[in-house]
Amino acid sequence: MAKTIKNFIVSFVTAFFTKWLEDFFIFVGVAVIVINTYLITTVDVNIIAGNYLLGLILIILGVVLAKQ
């Protein structure tokens, strides 16, 4: 039973890092940008700018990983 669980975890992590990581980065980047768009009036400007930059970097990283 433990070996089966270990094999499942190893295969899931391997599949995540080889197939889904770029999609995850792009999704999180878009989500950060969308959430920041709704928080413009309630959060300081420097935090908003940093979060937009984070979203942009995540999207670019996801696209670069998808191109490989």
Topology diagram in text:
Layout: H1 2-38, H2 45-67
Helix pairs in contact: 1-2
Structure summary:
With 68 residues, the chain is an all-alpha fold. The protein is 88% helix and 0% strand. The mean pLDDT is 89.
What does this structure look like?
This protein has 68 residues and is an all-alpha fold. The chain is 88% helix and 0% strand. The protein contains 2 helices and no strands. The chain has helices at residues 2-38, 45-67. Helix 1 crosses helix 2. The longest helix has 37 residues, at 2-38. The model has no long low-confidence stretch (mean pLDDT 89). The chain crosses the membrane at residues 20-41, 47-66. Keywords: Membrane, Transmembrane, Transmembrane helix.
The end-to-end distance, rounded to whole angstroms, is 36 Å
Low-confidence stretches: none
Overall helicity: over 70%
Class computed from helices, strands and strand pairing: mainly alpha
| Morphology | elongated
Give me the Rg, rounded: 17 Å
Biggest sheet character: none
- β-sheet strand percentage: under 5%
Number of helices: 2
**N-to-C SSE string, H for helix and E for strand:** HH
Q: What is the mean pLDDT?
A: 89
Instruction: Count the E strands.
Output: 0
List keywords for this structure.
single chain; 68 residues; mainly alpha; 88% helix; elongated; membrane; transmembrane; transmembrane helix
